[in-house]
Structures are given as structure tokens and as C-alpha cells.
Amino acid sequence: MSNPAGPRITDPQAIPVDGVDDHLPPVPFERLQPGALRERFAAPPVWTPEISGDGARFNPQRAPAAAAVLVPLVMRDGGLQVLLTMRTAHLRDHAGQISFPGGRVEAHDADAVATALRETEEEVGLDRRHVEVIGALPTYSTVTGFVVTPVVALVEPGFTLALDDFEVAEAFEVPLPFLMTPAHHRRHRFEMAGVQRQFLSMPWQGIAADGRPRPYFIWGATAAMLRNLYGFLARG
What is the DSSP letter of 47? Predict the structure, then answer.
């Protein structure tokens, strides 16, 4: 599923829902345990990701840039939680969107894991001593010209976050079982500039830092990478 090149989507929540994937089964709960995840990434199944990217880039003249994100699975007593961030509204790329911590590969990074860990420390202050990297998903190409490696990790509780308030407006957690249930995966399809486009969303009703209920609209590249994680864990 991809988004052909075209104008940026400025209000994704206004795009009608074309379908919900409630015909697909959720990932069994036993596969969403730390030990089972370690085993799955240590011996991955033969598998092809459903969504390899957003589609053609907005600026095809600019060479693609390598990037990496951390998919942090926090080991809470009630089950694994996915740590996500909300980007600040003034950023050039993906402003105001919900994303994984991460960013562009720098020359001094040894590999994608090093990038993901460094960027996560810089963006949200998550110390890498709490992080156990268990594997990675196939790269995902964004419409803004990044080729992103999602690095999956288990995170021990007890950490304290320190957000970079230039890049990150908020950090929050969503239960992994919720995100691994396709009944919560919504498909949006529309036409823009004469081109058919589509994307996934996974809306979550959470609790903001002030304790009040708050909706979080997870969509685009973040939702697509989560959908690929679903496919990886549901396979076989």
C-alpha cells in the first residue's frame, strides 16, 4: 500500500475511512511477551512486509537519506507498551505527527542500531542501559525522502525521560496488543490532484500528561511500520 507523489496531507483526520481490517485476527497474546519476541527476531519467518513505503517522494531530485527509528517496547507489569512521541508543530518534516524516536544516520554512527539509540537518547532522554535491542524490520521509505530502519527493542522500566522540547512535544505509551489488533487499523483512501492515495491510521484514546483523556491519531509511516510489525508477528 503506497501513497503516490502529490501534495502533503495536512489534515489526515479529515480523510474519510474507507475500511477497517477487523476481518484479520489479532496477534495472539502469547506472541506479545518478551521471551516470544526475542525468539521471533532470533529466528524470523519467511516474510515480506505489506507496506514498503509511502510511495514516490515529494522531491525526487534529492538523494534518499538513511535514517533509523527505535520501536521501544516498554515491559510494564500489565504487558508491553509502545513508547511513541508527538513531534513539535514547527518542524520541517512530519510536524505535529506521532512517530517513533529516531532520525537521520550520521557519519559517526556504526549502524542503524547506533543511530536509533543515539537519536532516542537525544530526543527523549531514554538511557540505552535500559534498552535491549532484539532485531529490526525491513526498511521503510518515506515520501519525504528517508529510508528508515525500524530497530525493535525491549525497554526495562525505571527510566526517566527528558524530552528535547525543540523536536518533541510529548511522549506517551500505547498497549502493544491494541496496536497488534487489525480491528483498530483503519484504511483511508482519497483522490488528490487527480491521484489516488491511501494510508493507515490507528487512533488511540489515551491519557495526556495532565491526566485528562486525549485522542492520539497514529497514521502514515508510523502506522505503516506498526502494520509491518503486525505482519511479522502474525506470520506462521
Answer: -
- At 5, the pLDDT band (50, 70, 90 cuts) reads very low
DSSP secondary-structure letter at 38? H
Give the CATH H-level superfamily of domain 16-54+64-234.
Nucleoside Triphosphate Pyrophosphohydrolase (3.90.79.10)
Task: Give CA–CA dist 15/198, Å, rounded.
Answer: 9
- Location of C-alpha cell 491494541: 178
CB atoms within 10 A of CB 165: 8
| Alpha-carbon span 94 to 8, nearest angstrom | 10
- 14-18, 157-161, 195-199, 206-210: which has the highest mean pLDDT? 157-161
Residue 74: in which H helix or E strand, if any? strand 65-76
- The model carries a pTM of 0.91
